[in-house]
Amino acid sequence: MVAQTRGAGQSSPKKLAFHDKLVGKGLSTDVLQKKMQALHKELADMDQELVDTQSLSAVRKELVNKSILLHKDRGVKALAACCLADLLRLYAPDAPYTQDELADIFSFFFRQLSTGLKGTDAPYYNEYFHLLESLSTVKSVVLVCDLPKAEELMAEVFRSFFNLVKHDLPKKIELFLTDILVALIDESSSLPSDVLLSILEQFTDKHTGADHPAYRLAVSVCNSTADKLQQHVCQYLSTEITSHAKNEDYDEVRNAHDLIKELSRSCPALLANVIPQLEAELATENLQIRLLATQVMGEILSEKNGAEFARKYRPACTVWLHRRQDKVQAVRLAFIEGCKGVLSNLPEMRDQIEDALESKIFDPDEKVRAAVCKLYAQLDYETALHHVNTKQLRLIAGRGLDRKRSVQIEATNALAQLYSVAYPEMTITDQALADYILPLPSSSNSKSTDVDEIAWTDRLLFTTGLLDDTARNSLLSLSGLKLGHPNIFDRYVDACVKHNGGVIDENEENVVKELNDIIKRLAISFLDPVKAVDDLNEFAALNESRLYKLLKTCMDPQTDLKSLVKSSNEFLRRVEQSSSTILPTMTAFLRRSSLRIVNQSSIPTMLRRVQKGLEGNGQADAARSAEQWLTFISKHQPALYKLHIGELAKAIADERYVKLVEISLQALAATAQWDANLAPTEKRTFERIMRYVMESNHRHAKFAARLLTQYKDSEAICTGIVESIADSLVNADADLLAAHTAVLAQVALHAPEAFEVKSDVIMKFLLKQVLMRRDEYSDEMDVDADSEWTEDADMEPLLRAKILALKTCRNRCLAHRNDKEVLEIAKPVLNMFATIIRYAGSFTAEGNDDPKVKARLRLQAAVSFLHLAGVKDLVSEVQSTFVPLTIVIQDPCYQIRMTFLDKAIALLSSAKLNPGFNVIPFLAVHDPEADVISKAKAYVLYAVHSMPKLERLARFEMIFFRLLHLLAHHPDFGTTEESLPDIARYIEFYLDLVASPDNIPLLFYLAMKAKTVRDIESHLYSENLYAMSDLAQHLIKSFASKHSWSVESYPGRVKLPGDIVRPLPNAEAANEIVKTVYLPESSLACLHKGSEAKSKAKAERAEGVERKLPAKRKAPAKTNGNAKRARTKGKRRKADTSDDEPSSSSIEEDEDEENGVVSSSSEDEEDAEEENGEPAKEERLGRGARTRAKARIKKQVKKSRTKAKSPDSDD
């Protein structure tokens, strides 16, 4: 006990003046209270050092009398407690009572406090305050530790005080209670278990928190006695975890770990002995313990004091980091979940966490990859901006292309969420998130219909301006604008209406079949196709007319943004009320079927942004984005313009804004094609359109002409235009000639009768004076002679006129596709196209034309040929040029290859070409550019997986024979050891994409059947075909063996195409051919070795999934043998936003484009290095690539010698 000194300097002991009796009969409560007050006042004023303790003997005995301690009056007991506390102070350090009496006294103290002290307004509050102050300052309470019932008393003290403090008492009282409890713990030789439990209960009580008085008291006590409590806490937790884990009571084990987490937050010093135990748990074989330890460790490190914790317990942190490689998925997921807070709060560990997350983003388990993506979605803007490097963001973006849809969704959500939080503060130039996140405009998830349409559109335009070509095309695709009407979503709703919830009046079988077929096609694109089928069927079974009406409103292109949001919210609310389980599926259905990214409400804002950009108001980026969107809308969804015809007509009136006039004319033309009644009829507007059609701006002229062909009296209007142009062609300058030719191309397609009025004059002029016109060319004339491509902006007017002349020829044929004379009209045109393709862009083999002109002409000829190949009456004529046409996919020029593939895919996707043209994508396998191969592969995989079985059979499986036949005619065909691997790669590529256990017997049967016929052209090609048959059989067997498939006999019979092969003359010839092996054994052996080498390399790469690769050196960019200019970043493709060659199958869209390919980015070319850092071997090139490349290289060498000039580093 600590003695207190008052009144120092007095020499004689002071005796107690109070002599009244406190115990006796006849004492009323009031009298006793007064006596007790007088005694308390005198004792409180006495000094311990100057008191005569003998004078205290009488009151000392009377105060512990039961009549006092058990008095019924609370005031008497409160004053008695104060007097007893004063006596203990005055007698200190020796207590004047026996141990039993002391036990009764302290029990009395604690009872008075717990029952009487309820707050500052409680009766006798001053007396209770005095008692606590005395116990706190004098420390007389430590006498409890020496009593026989010390443990019981201590437990009572702690329970009482934790209950007492809950009454929201003054801060000073909390300090008194803390001092008392700390003194008891410090003086006790051993800590009673009940005391420890009382303390720890304050951290596990769900009703307490960091601001609760009991929690604060426990924290203060623990932090003041941490050295003494450490061992007890560790022992308690160890016992709890071990015993409950042994009994597999993991709920209690979890509670113990929750306690560790709570203590780390408020009393980290208590865990000095616990953390080594937690470290051991991180490596234990017990999964549940390891999982809990991983979770708790992550949460501890995420706290504000995590940095101090990490420095103090570095070994434990290291073991926790190793949990990223745990063999159990759940533990790896727990580790990732813990990384979020560490990433935000621990700069010291940020590099280690980023390395761990980088490895886990490629984890074999899709749930782990998805969890990493989800983690980034939960970061706030500042954390993502300052604490996440751009490499991580790139990797997250890359998971948007993950093989698993769940990962794709989480990655996309993460990027969208990061962009959403970053958008208010983001600028284009200095924010990392703006450069690396694929942003999407905000979709309204709120129940409010108060949508700012202008802000919505501006956000979309800002977003679009941040994207490169690939990302922009993805955003355009996500917009849903390409969905025509009626589409599969419309047909689903109509089928639901017909189904009528299963109550069908007539044609029940057909109605049910139609609904099931539509549902199957829709379900393919959902994350869980099986659930999608069930949910879509359940929605149909609901048969709620209000839901159908809301859905149709959302899908209607004329619905404005506010109505869309309102209808969407009501639709989703009603679906949730009717059947909550189908809500996710119907939410996805709604988003895909409605225009939520761009809407008809966006048109006015976009037109204004284009105008302001042209005015030079600092909105050039928004203007460019608006141009791209408006052009895309014109090509794919002109219905959005229906309510804005007046604004478009007004826009073409101001000729100062050339680009705005062009966009508006294009929009008006597209809208009139969609609905001819929407063509503007106002006199001034019509006069402006007539003026534009005759001017020298070829874009204005083209769209004006297209618009005029949609008027009711279009034939008369167009006839006058054709006659006027025919008379002025001879004297037109180059710009006007290009514009007039653009008009003629439109009229030839949309108003053929008007065109035929002067067709003989026009066609003769275009052929002789435009197409056949030759300008002598030499390398010295071209400052960029190494390039054979010219961009749209750099194209000479005469070249543009030549291209448009080819389009005019093509369009004239297409316009007569259903006429009897189509063959007569088309045959010379097809011959001309074939000549251009055969002579690589020239009309003669010796033509010394500009390579840029030749490249553009052979591209246009090939694309035009594709369009004409879809005309039924021209199929036989096209077949004679089938081989050179398909091999355009192997042209030396990248832009030609990519554009040709785009057009082929577009026409094939819409079934406008016969199935045989599906061989084209497989010829891209040797392309030196990865994006060409990727596009071809993506088309085939999507088509194969989405097509019905019979359609897949006709369009991809039966064409295998045509592919073998084509390869037999390929200029690079050969059976030598050098040539055969290249030819084999085509078949391997086909098998990789198309073969399955179900169709492998058919493919093998088709390969064998190739040796039962002869080529229609010559015996040489027949032998080539037989060699292809042997090669295909060999490769199919190897492929099936590798996949453990059995190649069974095909049970059916197949009729081979009679346009390319004929039957053999007799059975003897057939037997001889079947018995003959047409492939040299040495070539097959070489092929086998190459296959083994590739398998080994693939296995090695698979083993090193998470291994960091050495930095790659950049290889010089090559274009199939000839050097090409570095492509500007973001300019590789303009695809759907391009304005010339079509990206869809529509010939009208084709007319909106003008060679819409641009130089590609050099980024993809710079990674042509092997993993070991050595330069990659140059890709083997296709027929056109090799033959033309060799000639070009020879010419470049010759030129370099004559000019005494060192070769370009890219050669």
Please provide a written account of the structure.
The protein has 1211 residues and is an all-alpha fold. Among the domains are: 14-189, Leucine-rich Repeat Variant (Alpha Horseshoe), CATH 1.25.10; 488-594, no CATH class; 957-1092, no CATH class. 61% of the residues lie in helices and 1% in strands. It contains 57 helices and 4 strands. The strands form 2 sheets. A two-stranded antiparallel sheet has the order 1-2. Strand 3 (1118-1119) and strand 4 (1122-1123) form a beta hairpin. Helix 5 (99-116) packs parallel to helix 7 (150-164), helix 17 (329-345) packs parallel to helix 19 (366-377) and helix 50 (960-969) packs antiparallel against helix 51 (980-994). The longest helix is centred in the C-terminal third of the chain and has 24 residues, at 1019-1042. The radius of gyration is 44 Å and the shape is elongated. The N and C termini lie far apart (95 Å). Residues 1-10, 427-446, 1101-1146 and 1153-1211 have low confidence and may be disordered.
Compose a concise summary of this entry:
This protein has about 1200 residues and is mostly helical.
> Got a strand count?
4
Average per-residue pLDDT, rounded, comes to: 83
Identify the quaternary structure here: single chain
Query: Strand count, sense and closure of the main sheet?
Result: 2 strands, antiparallel
CATH topology of the domain at 14-189: Leucine-rich Repeat Variant
Rg on CA atoms, Å: 44 Å
What portion of residues is helical? 55-70%
Shape: elongated
Tally of helical runs? 57
Biased composition (Basic and acidic residues): 1090-1109
Subcellular location: Nucleus
Protein name: Sister chromatid cohesion protein
Biased composition (Basic residues): 1124-1134, 1183-1204
